[in-house]
Amino acid sequence: MAGSKQETEPGSEARTWLYQDLRLSPIFGVITTVGPGQTSELACAAEPGPCNTRAAVAQAEGGRKRYIVIDEDSGGHKPHRADDLGLGSVVRLVSDAGLGGVRLYGVTAGLAIGNAVQRAVVNAVGNLPTGVLRDISVEPISPRKSEFGSDIELLHSTAGASLIEASQDAIDELRNEGKVVAEDTPIYPASARPAAVRRRGVRTNLLRVTIESETTGNVVAGAQVTAKLVNGDVDSDATNEDGVASIDVTGSAIKMLWIDEAPGHWSWTGPSPEPVSNGVTVRLMPIDAGYVDVLRHHYEKPSPDAGIGVKVAVIDTGIGPHPDVAVAGGLGYPASPGPGEYTASGSSHGTHVAGIIKSSGAWFGVAPGVSLYSYRVYEDLERGSAYALAVAIDEASRLGCDIINLSIVCLPNDAVRRYIQYALDRGVIIIAAAGNDDRSALSFPASVDGVIAVGAVGRRGTFPLRTSSAKAVAAPAGTDPDDFVASFSNRVRSDDFSAPGVGVISSLTGGGWGVMDGTSMAAPVITGLVSRILASSQWSSRPRSVQRTRAILSILRRRAASLGFPVELQGKGLVKSP
Fold first, then answer.
1. Is 487 a catalytic residue?
2. 349 is a catalytic site residue
């Protein structure tokens, strides 16, 4: 079935594309076209324009900002005839038959683009289920600059959405033309501590923070050190092999320190110790083997196949590697128009969330049988972009995920809201962290109608007193006086839920185990429980639909029990094991 095609471009030598190397990847039937000596990011070498950009998190200079432009045709996805696309375009072939979406990435060739696409399809058909190529439409993925004016820089594009940089005047003009435009805004993990980010500017005054084990005195490598400065800035660093993190205190001083993601140790929070010789030392308590944290207090170890057959997307900082958290596949955003890197981006947050769902190790997950897919939307520690989040939600929902976990908070964003609605309309269940603003109103995107929000509860006796987790204890008391709603947890709606989110032990990138606090940790507990309910119900064999979502959530709510807290703090309460 191998075929080849030779095309000559004006002013360039002839190029030959081989279609014999069409690979069906592990994630939802993604087909990647690979030319001679090229990787799956083949399309990045093609014109026009860049197809890979860092997360849009900083405001551009000169009054220019980054925005998301949405193509609302066909639910945000506009089909095109192959002959309408230009040289170097990257296309997706979409079919609703069989796989719930087939994507073909390939570089087209000159005026014969239609033939190139057809030949690629013909050579791929042997790898696909019968009938999967019915009713195919063609969508552009790579940027097409002709769609925007010369004063707009197109940074990245995927089917249905584009990331641009432009002045306010240019954006006003786009809106006047009827285009849907949303400002690209930062997103952060829903952890109880501030997001781990790098302080911008010249780092001229670095304070050494050394992390040691309290019992042995050995240094702790890989711990995340996050500092809030007196002037309000935040700076973060991970400890190196010598147990040292460097915090930028240029023009300021540390007001508060948070230390977590520490392999084998509990977290710690407090004012910075007095510096000695331009450095401070913090000693952490080790985690005892077999320690029963709040999650394992409330839930017994499930069977290894609990949740089997259910596809769960974790949109986060990336997952793993970790030997006890198997990942079926994933994508990284912003990415080239092919599978990007989906392992951890420098933070263990996503790996920790994933372990709560699927871990098969010493500290078990709630639903170890699910198929887990990682969508990484952070490239700068724990700062990401709304554009990446919107695109990841769309990809996960279009390509077959049953449940999406969003342990994420950000400002309300129209692009993210629209793509969440597209996913809900397809029958995807979306579960999100309530946020950690000390019992303030529900955070976005958990506040979107149809999304299940999850607040965090804790229990005295499931963490040592000299840890970050102990600072989350707060009134009022529940029916059991040892239970409490975390002081940081935001309010929820009457149909939302609570789950363990204080002092949760879970997996860390690289193979270790550590502790984190936040509604980020509570959301994946509900994600795991929903997976088990779906897997064991009659709905598991039926297609995704709004009706299926309603049925599963109805079962979930019937399994919830009040812990004795006000409804605005606990929602329906804690869900019992299926």
1. no
2. yes
